[in-house]
Amino acid sequence: MAHKWVYLFTEVNDAEKRMGSWDGVRSLLGGKGAGVADMTRAGLPVPPGFTITTEACNEYYANGKQFPEGMWDQVLAALKDVEQRTGKKFGDPTNPLLVSVRSGAKFSMPGMMDTVLNLGLNAQTKQGIARLTNNPRFAADAYRRFVQLFGKIVLGVAGDKFEHVMDEYKEKGGQHRQDTDLSSEELDQISERFKQIIKQDAGIEFPEDPYDQLKMAIGAVFGSWMGRRAIDYRRVNKIADNLGTAVNVQTMVFGNMGNDSATGVAFTRNPATGENILYGEYLTNAQGEDVVAGVRTPKGLDDLAQEMPAAYQEFKTYAERLEKYYKDIQDLEFTVERGKLYMLQTRTGKRTGRAAVKIAVDHVHEGLISKRDAVLRVEPAALDQLLHPSIDPKAKLSVLTTGLPASPGAASGQVVFDPDDAVNWARDGHKVILVRTETAPEDFHGMEVSQAFLTARGGMTSHAAVVARGMGKPCVAGAGEIRVDYKNKQFSANGTTVKEGEWISVDGSTGQVILGQAPLVDASMSGDFGEFMQWVDEFRTMGVRANADTPRDARVARQFGAEGIGLCRTEHMFFGGDRIDSVRQMILSGLDYKRLERELNGAQAAKDEARIAEITRQIEEPKRLYLGALDKLAGMQTEDFVGIFKEMDGYPVIIRTIDPPLHEFLPHEEAEQRDLAQKMGITLEKVQATIEQLHEFNPMLGFRGCRLGIIYPEITEMQARAIFTAAADCLKQGIKVIPEVMIPLVGDLNELTDQASKVRATAEKIKAESGQNFEYMVGTMIELPRAALLADEIAREAEFFSYGTNDLTQTTMGMSRDDAGRFLPLYVERKILKDDPFQVLDQKGVGKLLEMGVQLGRQTRPELEVGICGEHGGEPESVKFCYRTGLNYVSCSPYRVPIARLAAAQAALGDKTRDK
Amino acid sequence: MAHKWVYLFTEVNDAEKRMGSWDGVRSLLGGKGAGVADMTRAGLPVPPGFTITTEACNEYYANGKQFPEGMWDQVLAALKDVEQRTGKKFGDPTNPLLVSVRSGAKFSMPGMMDTVLNLGLNAQTKQGIARLTNNPRFAADAYRRFVQLFGKIVLGVAGDKFEHVMDEYKEKGGQHRQDTDLSSEELDQISERFKQIIKQDAGIEFPEDPYDQLKMAIGAVFGSWMGRRAIDYRRVNKIADNLGTAVNVQTMVFGNMGNDSATGVAFTRNPATGENILYGEYLTNAQGEDVVAGVRTPKGLDDLAQEMPAAYQEFKTYAERLEKYYKDIQDLEFTVERGKLYMLQTRTGKRTGRAAVKIAVDHVHEGLISKRDAVLRVEPAALDQLLHPSIDPKAKLSVLTTGLPASPGAASGQVVFDPDDAVNWARDGHKVILVRTETAPEDFHGMEVSQAFLTARGGMTSHAAVVARGMGKPCVAGAGEIRVDYKNKQFSANGTTVKEGEWISVDGSTGQVILGQAPLVDASMSGDFGEFMQWVDEFRTMGVRANADTPRDARVARQFGAEGIGLCRTEHMFFGGDRIDSVRQMILSGLDYKRLERELNGAQAAKDEARIAEITRQIEEPKRLYLGALDKLAGMQTEDFVGIFKEMDGYPVIIRTIDPPLHEFLPHEEAEQRDLAQKMGITLEKVQATIEQLHEFNPMLGFRGCRLGIIYPEITEMQARAIFTAAADCLKQGIKVIPEVMIPLVGDLNELTDQASKVRATAEKIKAESGQNFEYMVGTMIELPRAALLADEIAREAEFFSYGTNDLTQTTMGMSRDDAGRFLPLYVERKILKDDPFQVLDQKGVGKLLEMGVQLGRQTRPELEVGICGEHGGEPESVKFCYRTGLNYVSCSPYRVPIARLAAAQAALGDKTRDK
């Protein structure tokens, strides 16, 4: 027997038998085809039709864009079946069968071919319809719609050319008419004009033979699968290219046969809020595309209950039945033709994160699904919108410009341009939004007090974006249309100027910059969401910690359910208040001190007494300044750690020793350099010479991480002192502290041994001094390929590993996150890489090192604690990979903790990367 | 029985039996101890003595610096044996036994403890010696020497303090006396002064008990094993710390007993040239340290033949016997005491590379060793000095300053400061040396015509150094004392000013900068060296290619025996002549072109006809300029490739497509930027904006390698066109061409597939156009960890791999070669890393990726050709590692090809990393 390319709606059982599962049927017939077939099987009123399979589509491409052998014959046979069921005949002027042709992939996909309605119409069958309905205007309008849709969708003629003609007729003689006001004759004239446009643009006569029409429409559906928009959509939504689309050919029913006819769409619950009401809209005397095109304003379903109570009741019954049957919210299409209801589509409804949670919780309470189902049903990423304030969806907004949605959430505030101004305004009780061309580390104090940031330059991984996500503040970055004028304290975009102190709102989830104070809706972990997250934790087995640098971050992290801190970046504390002065003192005097120390060693080796005396004299001052600055910092860091330990009472806190290159702490601009020179009592030249001396070609691969601590052991010791002093203090107060000290950028066991020995010696000293016997661990970040490759050696010293997948991605792929903007977007667009590896963990390459590291590390130390603290720790697919790799925990920004918890729970429930 | 810590010289058979091999004996007794014991066994006149083993030394450290149990008793017993053999008694005033105490590790090691002579002397035994020799002055001098040496070497008192006293006596009353002129009384006074100094400085009375003296001397020898200089030496020479040193205690004989006594050192052949003559020097009436200290000028051995013919003849006989016995050049020490010859040392002689080759060749011709032995005997790195011109070792030089020895060889030339001046001077027939503060890519044309480079800044891996090594030109980099004054065209150092046109010489092997024209000795591959390299190739199985970018490089590479080119960096050709103008045109117009191309795609997708027309118009000019520049470059590159293919007739040539980030081709200085703007007919602002736009934070990880070719496919196509056009041309001329096109910085199969398809399409096109059916391959560099990890996938497309270990080291270790200067030297010094990984391949980490890549790649494609083209390809230990890993070839700078050939031959002969 020939391969079966075509399934009648009534042959759904055959399809299910062949594919072995309902998911298989959906793969074969597409979501839409499976839905109508399933409704047919359930006895719902579905206009007869058939589906050409996704296999046929794939074969079409394999075949050099030819229909597979036998397919067309099967289409003709199926058409015969439909003719018998309807008593109509395709192309027969006496009683013509008209059909709709729709694409239908497994996953609903905008960008695929739209529906072609009324296919089968031509000069003859139009007359037949006119006769049969006794309504020539209806026939003329149906034909006009068909020619227009076919021309635009199948033949690719620009839609506005048709609209111009329509407008011309509507405006004829200065009138302002609706499309329903056009006469039958006018509509016929319009159809003729359309055909001329088609001939001119597409270079062919409009096909009058209904079979030609069908053939072309099917080809167009197949073709739309590889259209640019469809490919883009699949790329963004990670849907495989080889799924193919099905084609649904279905008997037309008419919602435009008069005022007893209608067409509409509905969701079984509110897809925005999750509220349990039948939610939708419809148009009387209209066809489906009118609802979408917004030709007239549709009415709510409540009106349908009034207008056509029988149809409405019947539809409501079906809606409830379908939701119960599929155990999920359904997205329905229906048409009422002269009072009779037809069901045209059922599919799982898309919903917001907020609705997803509410519906899942309600479904559990209604006994429809289990908690397990509920947990598996919500997309982790969709939770994001529940975790930040958002702009009230009902509000009318005055959007000034749109930049990159760099850090989610929305906020309103008064505009400031300078970090110091931000501090002053905030001290006076103002809510401020910091607007900069771009931000730098020295703006940190201003960022800390701002509600949100807006920058003119920089991408999703710019300084502003990264800091914002870390702080959980909204950020719109790279808003290229704005021009910041620091001198006059104002910015402008698209002709509008905003001055310091004026209110704006930014939506970091959409990138919108809005004039004035937009109304906000708050985030909350209570209610349905709280209940849902409880279920999540019932299934979750892997730990979830947060990356948090301050007591405030730590508190937020706990509120979002973090079970500890996976990464506390001590150097982020270096920017707060006037600490940066001490840091800079430490750097400037430290350089002198180390240089002289080396000279002293040389002189001692040479037993050059005179030189020894000379250097010993010279070294005194830099040593005093260096150690003095360190002492100050130790005191301040101790306070920070006490704050964090208190918030994390009973939970582990991983603290990383200093990581960034020292030049990051020095000022870039001459004014600030001059200021620094004055503060330190040295010359501007000396400051600039130091900055010059510290300059690096590739700072990412430079003098940073443990390399700093090895050359400046006093810094590591200072930090260890602060950590353990805080631990002892807290323990004294009855707080349970679990400090884990993490050494960054280790590539060799010897590096870790050097640093760990200093940390351990300091810990023992403080234990002895304080009499407090705190527990602690020393471990390392695995963020260099060499560390993963030699994890067995490194685990001899490391009590825990934490994967720094940001840097590990950069080094493994040889790709600087700051510089990849010139090629990475194109790489993803052209599918050279499936995803941006800085957003979704590169499981194949970087992941292989992760697996090696875990395996080698546990070989040496079976109880080794392994986690991840790169930004991937909050990305659902990456979290699931971490679970499969056997990690003990993931750590992410506090605001992504619930997302990671959900992803971890789904992973524990065996959820694989989704088959898209 | 107690462990044996002490071996009499006569017990060498016991030692050999216990250790199982002569190498074992050398490990146990040290080189010196094994030598004297061996000579004793052979019946040569060796003063009796014994050796304390290296095991005792290691045990001493394991024991907290205590002699191991039983050792001291064994020393006393051995001393008894020596007393019996000599008839003298240790500490006996009537007939005192005096001994020397020397350190002696397995490998000869400067920085270890020097010899202590005359140990056993004190007030009493001094009298005994005076009586016995009837020479009170001799006794007094011996005592003075002993106190001085013991004080300095065992007790650590600064040597100049003793010298001051000696000088004081020599100059007494305005005289200028030799040490031999001092009277017995004066010497006694001096000894007393010495003892006071010792008491003051070391805080102890000078030990009068000979047993205390011996105990302290042995402890000092052990202690010197962990002295700073010894540790440094071991680090530099890669000798393990756990070998330990032996201590040799030997009966004193006296070369200073009058004019019938002498002491000297000799080599069995000339260690500088390899010439087969007994080569050495001696002093009459002197002790060993006088020869070393240069107190008097020693005489050549010819004089000894005249002065003491019997002793000379006997010594000559022993020397020949020892060389035949050890089958290698020997380094001997001897003393003549009252006419009687004593042999004090025999060990393998250190020699220059030149001598090593000559001696090995002569030994083979003499039938002493096999070719295999000869090949294994020469250190590959030692060949370096044969491969470059060098300064005549006999010349008197006026050294101005010393910088880093950045690229070996020596050259003389007239100083120029500007690359354009270099070109002009060279065109007029002058030999020039380019002196710059530092060099940049845009200086390339000036570097090309210079004999050598001298820079004030930059390290061993600075631009000047890397280019110089690639070109095989001498370079002294980072000569920090020189100040370059471009304005006045002069430089100065240490008060001397050198003006443009004045002659200097630089020695890139030592870092010396010399005023005037130093006489040079040329390199040559003929004679002994040529013969030796023939033998090398008889044993070698792995291929050796060269990294060569120009026909000139290729010719040198062939002369040095390269079997193809492993890396031709096409972009190096971009700097020659006025090509850089075309390159810059390509970059500037290419940026506009690509931006507009993207906009055009967008407009086409949106079917925005007006915008399409507008952009199509705008794009015309940049497109014309971009493609025009590419065409020009294609023409020029074709010529280059023809030149290279001709030189490499019959050998493969791997050509890498463009690799560096585009900003490297743009000028840094405003004057040049202005110049460029004028040439291109654009504004300076546009040039600067482009440079700003191309700026990268981490260029090493930025927009470079295949990423360029993917975004600018026209560049890849241009380069492929040039390569294959050249191949077709050559084939037409009967030249055998084997082009292999290499895509750099690949991290994913898709990248390679993209680029390979363009290269292959171009090849097929040119085959068709030219009618020439050349063979070619397409492969990739493996220089990112991800590429090695996914080598099985990448080998689906790649026909060959070439490891770019420079970048692979940078990414695997997360270490920028340009920035590592701040910590890497300290890492090596403190043994955190064993070697600088940019010099010696990191076998453990980077090597693991190498092994994985080879194994995975050959899994997919068993015939996969794998080589290495990083600078490690010319480093002997790395070459041996490559052999063991199964690589098909190594590729290195032309000037290191013979070194690589030798290392590869030694690897094939099973030579492991040397046991040091």
Mind explaining what this structure looks like?
- Two copies of one chain form a homodimer.
- Chain A is of the alpha/beta class and 916 residues long.
- Helix content of chain A is 47%, strand content 16%.
- Chain A is built from 34 helices and 33 strands.
- In chain A, the strands form seven sheets. In chain A, strands 14-24-23-16-17-18-19-15 form an eight-stranded mixed β-sheet, with helices on one face.
- The longest helix of chain A has 39 residues, at 609-647.
- The radius of gyration of chain A is 34 Å and the shape is elongated.
Oligomer description:
homodimer
Number of helices of chain A: 34
The biggest beta sheet of chain A is recorded as: 8 strands, mixed
Order of strands side by side in the largest beta sheet of chain A? 14-24-23-16-17-18-19-15
Indicate the percent of residues in helices of chain A: 40-55%
